[in-house]
From TrEMBL:
GO terms for cellular component: cytosol. It comes from Solimonas marina. Pfam families: Aldo_ket_red. This is Aldo/keto reductase. PANTHER family: NADH-SPECIFIC METHYLGLYOXAL REDUCTASE-RELATED, OXIDOREDUCTASE-RELATED. Residues 15-315 form the NADP-dependent oxidoreductase domain. InterPro entries: AKR_Detox_Biosynth, NAD(P)_OxRdtase_dom_sf, NADP_OxRdtase_dom.
Length: 323
């Protein structure tokens, strides 16, 4: 499988990253192991998770996804060397002080993530959300200490806008601190406004790697949700109603057209559009079966021509976000 440089991290990844938010949520441990086995068997090599996954499930406290990944790694000797593991810090874990991007919390949180994952070094450690109460210099200084200790390899920012990311990069240059080398934005054929424009321009100019989340718009871009009657098809259905507008239907029509030409699934086209997009290194996508992983492999090998890209871009284009 063709690999792509992930910004200036120094490592390459396959063109689709597995989204580990499903572990401990819609997948139990046994099913998670099976899907992860299939993911690696197909030549993929990057897994994204977070310390907060999957706290939103009744009875969970956060860390369930990391724990499942760690148990899978322990049960598969040698597989760790084939993978890049991404995780995140900053979301509220429900205890006093267990949130944000302060040095004190980062130093504590990273050790907890390493313990759950059962690894010695995190390949890519993300600031999950910007923290307006903590200076960039404090956060980046904490990451410098973690890099020096060998606990993390590279750092990224998730959910930062252009102004926040630009300021963080400025501080890293002025104070000679580690710089964010990867951005993780929400981005897909429907949700384009927050990344297209100033933020994408910044990433291209600075050479950042970009791994997108909600790459299939919570499953809407699979084409299985066409009306409100379809919303009960999955646990994510309630969040999909917002896509059932005229623009959403136009995007589905374009996906149907392109998928029909290539004899593939709509979701495969939606992922292939992201893979082909200048300013995107790899989409993050979640799967709950081996069939989904096989679909990822088809998406990774799908080449869209100018007519395909034009149809998709025309149906999905949104106004650029403000800086």
């Amino acid at each position: 499988m063709n690999k792509r440089p992930l910004g200036k991290t120094g490592f390459d990844i396959a063109p689709i990253v597995f989204g580990g938010n499903v572990f401990g949520w819609t997948l139990d441990e046994k099913a998670s192991f099976d899907v992860l086995d299939a993911f690696v068997d197909h030549g993929f090599d990057a897994i994204d998770t977070a310390d907060v996954y999957s706290r939103w499930v009744a009875g969970n406290r956060g860390g369930e996804s990391e724990t499942i990944i760690g148990r899978w790694l322990k049960a598969r000797p040698g597989v760790r060397d084939k993978l890049k593991i991404f995780t995140k810090v900053g979301m509220d874990l429900g205890e006093p002080g267990h949130k944000g991007l302060s040095e004190q919390w980062i130093m504590q949180a990273v050790d907890a993530s390493l313990a759950r994952l059962g690894i010695e070094q995190i390949d890519l450690y993300f600031s999950h959300f910007p923290d307006d109460e903590v200076a960039h210099a404090e956060t980046l200084g904490a990451y410098a200490k973690l890099q020096q200790a060998g606990k993390i390899r590279a750092i990224g920012a998730s959910n930062f806008n252009a102004a926040q990311l630009g300021e963080a990069l400025r501080v890293s240059r002025v104070q000679q601190l580690p710089a964010y080398q990867v951005l993780q934005p929400e981005y897909n054929l429907y949700d384009r406004g927050s990344y297209d424009g100033a933020l994408r321009d910044l990433c291209l100019r600075e050479g950042l790697g970009v791994v997108t989340y909600y790459s299939l718009a919570s499953g809407f871009l699979s084409g299985k949700y066409r009306s409100e009657a379809d919303l009960g098809k999955s646990a994510r259905g309630d969040g999909i109603a917002k896509y059932l507008d005229a623009r959403g239907m136009a995007i589905l029509d374009a996906l149907d057209e392109v998928a029909g030409r290539h004899r593939v699934k709509q979701a495969e086209v939606a992922l292939a559009w992201l893979i082909a997009r200048d300013g995107v290194t790899a989409p993050i996508a979640s799967g709950t079966s081996r069939a989904h992983i096989e679909s990822f492999a088809r998406a990774a090998s799908l080449t869209l021509d100018a007519d395909d890209l034009g149809a998709l871009d025309g149906a999905s284009r949104a106004a650029p976000a403000a800086a």
